[in-house]
TrEMBL record:
Region (Disordered): 206-231
Full protein name: Methionine--tRNA ligase, cytoplasmic
Biased composition (Polar residues): 212-225
PROSITE patterns, sorted: AA_TRNA_LIGASE_I, GST_CTER, GST_NTER
Enzyme class: ligase
Any GO molecular function: methionine-tRNA ligase activity
Organism name: Kryptolebias marmoratus (Mangrove killifish)
Length: 836
């Protein structure tokens, strides 16, 4: 294996550093910039790595990744995002900076090019609270980004000054930490020979001059969206946008009011959406809400706008140990606990405007009927096996102790209050019989070890069927990356028989005569709740759940629920052999944290569902911010300061400002009627830009990239604000006829963009969406038209259309208000959140 590098080539910095950091054995040869090392390329490509197989790698990032993987350091999802950002955002900005600084001598101007990417990097580093980009150890992302920035940040005084001026403290600390590594210092010396920027003059001279619009911003780590370089619009795009604009609205309404029960229809896209069933005894916090019900709600609303036939079901998961525990704590029966907290959940989701078609529960006769039917089918098909399990039994209470009914000293870290399934301190999974000094949580007596016979789902016997189905579903459906990775890790580690029974009283009874004292384990029983909840919604439930050729199933959940939805539950349905609908698209989020810690009800840390309405902040603003920071590719955090920033900048100053100005111009200058629009080239260009953003929104939403799609809504309002600012209709209206006509066109186009935004916002902020349409007196058919096909931005408010009363959509969140809320929910006190 041999690595070819050249002096003065900034791309060679990172590969040499990666080689030294990882310690991989590889020869290094220095060649000139002009040498064609890779035989099948017509141009020089350096650095290049000759592999033992005779193949070449000639992407610097691919070479760095290869060295780290060869050293056993796999690239995780966050690392991949940083590498993509470095390639698409940071490298173009750096090349422009080098061109200006090295060839044109414009060091001070060049420094401004990197300002926006450095903002993104600084925000992500400060939010992450980690020593390096992906954790507490150097990753390939650290080496790659350090190598890209080293030539300018280590040599340019103006750029070092920029770091100080714009308070990039986190960037400076991180950069210096990586630069201090001996491997990085050695690589810099070999490539730059102590000459700094001047060492790269020969290399930079041979590169094409980068256009300034090439330098764009991006947000790999939930950073605020930055202004992008303006997209180049072709004449063909403008002509197509004008043709679409002139088509007008659909004459017939596609999105009729829902008629229940909703059933699959021939010739339509039938979409069944489920949200992971929340435990009934827990009041959901913001992380629970965004991970499951809110994400599913946004997608369901979007699907209906697209004309799909959507059924969205959810409900409370009510059986199991946790419910028995809560009942004992509150002096109620399990059923009373379920009734109480089911109402709590329903109230919270109603306030958050979660538009379920049916919100049910698992403590029903239908649950027992369907779960027992699947059980008998598995038994008949010989997919169940018996085995004896050692368990803790309390002789005083005369019962086997389920995991959460016992606590003791952790065998791993000696934490004295570890549960029978997991230690809260070290996080390790525990078998209850491994606990030292165990105690029954009910009577505090020491339990004894006894044997108990249980039934197991024979996952190894179903493994080949599961793998065959998984290959098809993951390749054809939209599974999130974490869902695929978690599922594959379970398969790779080898499936083992999984216990489906428990020695409890509160659960679905096992119908087998030898196990009549037992109930089904919650992770066998709970996913069947999707079926029973649908059965309680409609007696024709099998048209959804035994119809895989006509129905697409979307499951929404947090990542900890993935194995049960991708392995255990599908195996139950495959083994039942009754033509069940299996998941086509498994959508899993990462975790949402609270500020720099975790949500904790007992410590009063974090906002829980029933507290949000008491803050005085509208539910649509909560929805917006949770979706803005939705943990799609990595864990993210709720931050009060960031919520205020996004409300005040994105909602108030960007989105709200544009929509309000557009409507007010119609009211103030044109007596409430949309003026005649005479489209000029500038207007046609804007129509094309807005149409492109709409297409991107639809493509992302179709792939359930909910957070990323939101960016394109905000981009449209940014385009609109700039359009108004450049054309100044408030001035032109006071001038001659041509200028007044121009003011009319700008106002008419703007108010039509506002109408489009109301439709695109509907899945995210349904109340605000309706308010905008009410203010614009928008026809219902605008809802049916805009999201058809790849996106249809038409003139929905034609000349002469009378709008309604316009008023501001959002209010500023003041600093003292936010500080008070942060203190209130920061663990200073414990709240009684149950009396709702």
């Amino acid at each position: 294996m041999k690595l070819f590098v050249s002096e003065g080539n900034p791309h060679c910095l990172k590969v040499l550093a990666a080689l030294e950091v990882t310690g991989v054995q590889c020869g290094v040869q220095t060649v000139s910039h002009e040498e064609k090392v890779v035989p099948f390329l017509s141009r020089p490509a350096l650095p290049a790595l000759l592999l033992p197989s005779g193949q070449y790698l000639f992407s610097s990032n691919a070479i760095c990744r290869y060295f780290f993987e060869a050293n056993g350091q796999e690239c995780n999802n966050l690392c991949n995002q940083w590498l993509e950002w470095e390639t698409t955002v940071l490298q173009p900005a750096l090349l422009q900076t080098l061109h200006m600084a090295v060839l044109q001598g414009k060091g001070s101007e060049a420094s401004k090019v990197l300002q926006s990417p450095l903002n993104v990097l600084d925000q992500s580093l400060s939010k992450g609270n980690m020593s390096y980009l992906t954790g507490e150890a150097v990753s390939v992302a650290d080496v790659v980004l350090w190598g890209t920035l080293h030539p300018v940040l280590s040599d340019s005084p103006s750029l070092r000054f920029l770091l100080a001026v714009f308070y990039h403290e986190s960037v400076r600390t991180w950069f210096d930490r990586v630069a201090a590594l001996h491997s990085c210092q050695s690589a810099a010396q070999k490539v730059l020979q102590g000459k700094g920027l001047q060492a790269m003059k020969s290399y930079v001279q041979k590169q094409p001059a980068p256009p300034s619009s090439q330098c764009r911003d991006a947000q790999p780590c939930n950073s605020s969206p930055a202004e992008e370089g303006e997209r180049v619009v072709s004449e063909e795009e403008m002509e197509a946008a004008v043709n679409t604009w002139s088509k007008g609205l659909n004459s017939t309404s596609l999105a009729a009011d829902k008629q229940h029960p909703i059933l699959p229809q021939e010739g339509k896209r039938n979409v069944l959406v489920t949200s992971a069933l929340p435990y009934v005894n827990n009041v959901p916090h913001l992380g629970n809400i965004i991970g499951c019900v809110l994400s599913a709600d946004v997608f369901s609303r979007y699907g209906r706008l697209r004309g799909w036939n959507v059924l969205f079901v959810c409900g409370t998961d009510e059986y199991g140990t946790a419910t028995e525990n809560k009942a004992r704590e509150e002096g109620l029966t399990p059923q009373q606990i379920c009734d109480k907290y089911h109402a709590v959940h329903a109230s919270i989701y109603k306030w958050f405007q979660i538009d379920f078609d049916f919100f049910g529960r698992t403590t029903t006769e239908k649950q027992t009927e369907i779960a027992q039917d699947i059980f008998w089918r598995l038994h008949q098909n010989e997919y169940l096996v018996e085995d004896t399990v050692e368990q803790l039994r309390c002789e005083k209470c005369q019962r086997f102790l389920a995991d959460r009914f016992v606590e003791g000293m952790c065998p791993h870290c000696s934490y004295p209050e570890a549960r029978g399934d997991q230690c809260d301190k070290c996080g390790r999974l525990i078998n209850a019989v491994e606990l030292r000094e165990p105690q029954c949580k009910v009577c505090r007596q020491t339990p004894v070890i006894r044997s108990s016979k249980h039934l197991f789902l024979d996952l190894p016997k179903l493994e080949s069927q599961l793998e065959q189905w998984l290959d098809k579903s993951t390749s054809s459906g939209d599974w999130t990356l974490n869902a695929k990775q978690i599922t594959r890790s379970w398969i790779r580690d080898g499936l083992k028989p999984r216990c489906i029974t428990r020695d409890l009283q509160w659960g679905t009874p096992v119908p087998h005569p030898d196990f009549r004292e037992k109930v089904f384990y919650v992770w066998f029983d709970a996913p069947i709740g999707y079926l029973s909840i649908t059965a309680n919604y409609t007696k024709e439930w099998e048209k959804w759940w035994k119809n895989p050729h006509q129905v697409e199933l979307y499951n929404f959940m947090a990542k900890d629920n993935v194995p049960f939805h991708s392995v255990v539950f599908p195996c139950s349905l495959l083994g039942a052999q009754d033509n069940y609908t299996l998941v086509n698209h498994l959508v899993a989020t990462e975790y949402l944290n609270y500020e720099d810690t975790k949500f904790s009800k007992s410590r009063g840390v974090g906002v829980f569902g029933d507290m949000a309405k008491d803050t005085g902040i509208p539910s649509d603003v909560w929805r917006f911010y949770l979706l803005y920071v939705r943990p799609e590719g990595q864990d993210s955090a709720f931050s009060w300061a960031d919520m205020a920033l996004k409300n005040n900048s994105e909602l108030l100053n960007n989105l709200g400002n544009f929509i309000n100005r557009a409507g007010m111009f119609v009211t103030k200058f044109f007596e409430g009627c949309v003026p005649v629009m005479d489209l000029q080239r500038e207007d046609k260009k804007l129509l094309a830009l807005v149409g492109w953003e709409l297409q991107q929104y639809i493509q992302l939403m179709d792939k359930v990239k909910i957070r990323d799609a939101l960016k394109h809504i905000l981009n449209i309002s940014r385009h609109g604000n700039q359009y108004i600012q450049v054309n100044e209709p408030w001035k032109k209206i006071k001038e001659g006829d041509p200028e007044r006509q121009r003011a009319g066109t700008v106002t008419g186009v703007s108010v039509n963009i506002a109408c489009l935004l109301s439709v695109m916002l509907f899945p995210y902020m349904p109340a605000v969406s309706q308010t905008i349409r009410d203010q614009l007196n928008a026809p219902q058919s605008c809802i049916d038209t805009m999201l058809q096909g790849t996106g249809t931005f038409v003139c929905s408010l034609s000349a002469g259309h009378r709008i309604g009363t316009v008023s501001p959509l959002f209010q500023k969140l003041e600093a003292d208000q936010i500080e008070a809320l942060k203190k209130r929910f920061g663990g200073q006190q414990v709240f009684d959140v149950y009396n709702v």
